[in-house]
Amino acid sequence: MSMNRREFIKIAGLSSILGIGGVTGVTALKNSVEASQVSKNPEALTAKRWAMVVDMSKFASEEDFQPCIDACHRVHNVPHVTDNPKHEVKWMWPETYEHAFPGNEDEYRAEKYQHMPFLMLCNHCENPPCVRVCPTQATFKRKSDGIVMMDMHRCIGCRFCMAGCPYGARSFNYKNPRPFIDESKENPEFPTRMKGVVEKCTLCYERLAKGLEPACVEAAKEVAVKKGTTPGLIFGDLEDPASEVRKILSERFTIRRKPELGTSPSVYYII
Amino acid sequence: MLEKAIYGGRRYWVWVCFLLSLIGVGFLAYLYQFQNGLGVTGMSRDVSWGLYIGQFTFLVGVAASGVMVVLPYYLHDYKKFARLTILGEFLAIAAVIMCMLFIFVDLGQPLRVLNVILHPTPNSVMFYDMLVLSGYLFLNLLIGWTVLGAERKEVAPPKWVKPLIILSIAWAPSIHTVTAFLYAGIPGRHFWLTAILAARFLASAFAGGPALLIILAMIVRKYTKFDPGKEAIQTLGKIVTYCMLINVFFLGLELFTAFYSQIPGHMHAFQYLYAGLHGHSQLVPIMWLSSILAVIAIALLVFPQIRKNESLLAVACAATFFSLWIDKGFGLVIGGFVPNPFEKITEYWPTLPEALITLAVWAIGFLVLTILYKIAVSVKEDVVFDKYGERQIKAE
Ligand code: SF4
Ligand code: SF4
Ligand code: SF4
Questions:
Q1: Average pLDDT over residues A225-239
Q2: Contacts of A168 (CB under 8 A, 6+ apart)
Q3: What is the DSSP string of A56-84?
Q4: CB contact at 8 A, A206 and A72
Q5: Rounded to an integer, what distance in angstroms lies between the CA atom of residue B65 and that of residue B211?
Q6: What is the phi/psi pair of residue B308, to 5°?
Q7: Who among B37, B121, B187 is closest to A174 (CB)?
Q8: CA–CA distance from B203 to each of A97, A136, B125, B328 (Å)?
């Protein structure tokens, strides 16, 4: 990635001040920057709309899902805030059925479904309310591949997006997160955050740009190899009929969280 | 005219110093929050807005309610409000300033607040809220100052203010409507996702704001030579009565829809607020206090004989104000977050630093209000009024 979003904005701003680019010039530049973000590296993984399938048959116990969570939180330097559960920061975590799909409870549903650890993460909604409400575009949907991104340097910490997200996918840094990151495990390639900004799963855009799959997907694959099964997290392009996620969606019965809200989540669950 | 603010008696200065000390304490609390982050408040991942945003919401209502005196006077030529309008306009100014401060102290990264202007985002309701609030502040400052200035010189106010006044009348409901839209357009928060929210906001604002104005007018009358007028206060009392009744009616509509439909998501917040949910009931006592105060207020207000007794009217207004302050400045925001999107419950209660900061913002508001009222009253005390409360203009 040769130019990040901030630098682009500076250049775009400068060029419009200098009168180099009018609106069209800026748009063209923006498109080329967007393109460069995903295609600069020839190995980068690209898609029109990224999606994830969570196959719950592969997540029976903690040892199946915890590696995925740990991988995500480690590569993204997610603080492990333990002293006050109210200040918890999490990008991926388990919830039981009744909490993951509230309103669908049924007291007679088989026990095994009631206690399944459904993995929660940002749904990268096609129509994301968090983006709609953000007053600074600090959270925005990347046009090229549908990832709902965070610009933690622009976020003013108003937390409107947290009220707006119907999935509880967002965390706020109620205090300086750095003391809660294990230094020995810190990933120097991913920025740590400061207090007062919101964060969430960014679908590993930084890894995709390098041609790597999301950290949680990679971890799920490792677990699968150990267990001799197929991985519980499948990642792919929703708009590519030949992609693996599409293949699964065309064969298996899948559900999404709160589809009635019209957000169109990109995370699917197979029970 | 500003110089009028620095001539005051002992009582005036004691009051100003009291406010300044509250502001000082709150400022220290804010430095503490600034240093340590919003973790020093009672807010959480689940209840991510609290007292600050509640106060903001409530005060937008107080600001908007200035229109309840401006409109009858300018559009219906209701002369008895002549002496009240400036108090209403200045109350609006103080309220908008508090609103802005409450937003500011709520930000996690306050130094980046200008990002809202640097990266204007028309799809965010917050963007419009910023526009309408600053516009309203500007209008009220300009109008209030110009009209008062003209009064001091004992001339008629310049012609160009009239269109601005009409504009400000139309503008006032917009600030509270947009504020309601901050909440009412969010999918998945059942408590807020109701088409009637803006209407409820306006009704409660037009009850709570004038209730406060009545109390302020009584204080002004008690401590200065300026009398806003007995009949003006009575008319305002009528406005409070009707709006309070409409407000309670609207709340009833919400309750009916939630509990007759029996849709759990629609009932949860009400259950949590008024009865407790799954053993969590921290807010139940204050919500009932709010309801009881509302009943007392209405019982005193609906009977004209009682309302005509000014001390009972004052009690009714105080009850109205505190009832709505709890309901809107607290319950409304927290109710939207409980239960959370996972239907789990995290409770919220403000912490000491949060309360001190809140108090300081109110103190700033009251300081602004005191100074503005001091100026207004000093000007008014010099002006001669006829029996309708219409000022006598020499130039005519
Ligand atoms: S899950 Fe929440 S945070 Fe993620 S895109 Fe949807 S609304 Fe936004
Ligand atoms: S907290 Fe940050 S990302 Fe969320 S709405 Fe506010 S500015 Fe946008
Ligand atoms: S996609 Fe990446 S950021 Fe999102 S949960 Fe998985 S590892 Fe974390």
A1: 94
A2: A120, B45, B46, B340, B341, B342
A3: GGG--SHHHHHHHHHHHHHHTT-----S-
A4: no
A5: 10
A6: -70, -20
A7: B37
A8: 40, 31, 21, 12
In sequence order, the β-bridge partners of residue A237 are: A50
Q: Which of A159, A199, A260 to mutate to test the interface with B (most CBs of B within 10 A)?
A: A159
Q: Count CB-CB contacts under 10 A for residue B208.
A: 29
Q: Where in chain B are the domains?
A: 1-185+351-387, 188-221+232-348
3-state secondary structure of B290: helix
Q: Report the alpha-carbon distance of residue B262 to residue B259 in Å, rounded.
A: 5
As for the ipTM of the complex, it is 0.90
Yes or no, beta carbons of B186 and A163 under 8 Å apart? yes
Q: Which residues pair with A269 in a beta bridge?
A: A54, A255
- How many of the other CB atoms lie within 10 Å of CB of A2? 9
- Who among B39, B107, B344 is closest to A174 (CB)? B39
Question: A129: Cβ below 6 Å to ligand 1?
Answer: yes
pLDDT tens digits, chain B, 396 residues: what are they?
A: 677 777 778 888 999 999 999 999 999 999 999 999 999 999 999 999 999 999 999 999 999 998 999 899 888 988 888 888 889 999 999 999 999 999 999 999 999 999 999 999 999 999 999 999 999 999 999 998 898 888 888 888 898 999 999 999 999 999 999 999 999 999 999 999 999 999 999 999 999 999 999 999 999 988 888 888 889 999 999 999 999 999 999 999 999 999 999 999 999 999 999 999 999 999 999 999 999 999 999 999 999 999 999 999 999 999 999 999 999 999 999 999 999 999 999 999 999 999 999 999 999 999 999 999 998 888 877 765 555 555 554 433
Helix axes B125-152, B85-106, angle to 10 degrees: 150
Is the backbone peptide bond immediately before B353 cis, with ω within 30 degrees of 0?
A: no
A160–B187 C-beta distance less than 8 A: no
Sign, CA dihedral A162-A168-A174-A176, equals negative
**Residue for token pair 């204050």:** B286
Which residue ranges form the domains of chain A, and what is each CATH number?
A: 38-270 (3.30.70.20)
CA distance A5 to chain B (A): 13
Residue with token string 């682009």:
A8
Closest in A133, A196, A261 to B125, CB measured: A133
CA nearest to A59, candidates A118, A111, A114, A122: A118
**Taking 70 as the threshold, does the pLDDT of residue A30 lie above it?**
no
Spatial contact of B319 and B327, defined as CB atoms under 8 Å apart: no
Structure tokens belonging to residue B123: 């799809």
Cα B374 to chain centroid, rounded: 20
Q: Are B91 and B209 in contact (CB under 8 A)?
A: yes
Residues 6+ apart with CB under 8 A from B335: B191, B269, B270, B272, B273, B283
* Mutant choice from A86, A132, A139, A152 vs B, greatest count of B C-beta within 10 A: A86
Q: Are B217 and B87 a contacting pair, CB within 8 Å?
A: yes
CA distance A133 to B85: 36
Query: Quick one: DSSP state of residue B158?
Result: P
The DSSP code for A94 is: E
